[in-house]
User: Which sequence fits this backbone?
């Protein structure tokens, strides 16, 4: 059974809820110091967030918007060194 990309079918209230959920998941990964998972989930949330209208963006709690746009940008932004693969100790 092929995996469906449910993010492309979301609209309206469901899309706003999904963005909030993804931001919260990214924050939980951040709190757990799981940077790779946090980065991945943050990218997904940001991609969906950028599809929202201004009115929909206003429905997202300010705490989540601030974390997504500013605080996480400080640590995961394009100006940061990208993650490297760990070298094996052989």
Assistant:
């Amino acid at each position: 059974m092929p995996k469906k990309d449910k993010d492309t079918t979301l609209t309206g209230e469901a899309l706003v809820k999904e963005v909030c959920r993804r931001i919260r998941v990214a924050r939980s990964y951040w709190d757990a110091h799981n940077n790779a998972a946090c980065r991945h989930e943050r990218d997904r949330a940001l991609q969906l967030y950028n599809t929202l209208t201004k009115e929909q963006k206003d429905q997202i709690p300010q705490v989540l918007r601030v974390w997504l746009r500013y605080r996480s940008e400080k640590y995961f932004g394009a100006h940061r060194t990208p993650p490297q693969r760990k070298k094996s100790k052989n």
Notes: Residues 7 and 15 are 8 Å apart (CA to CA).
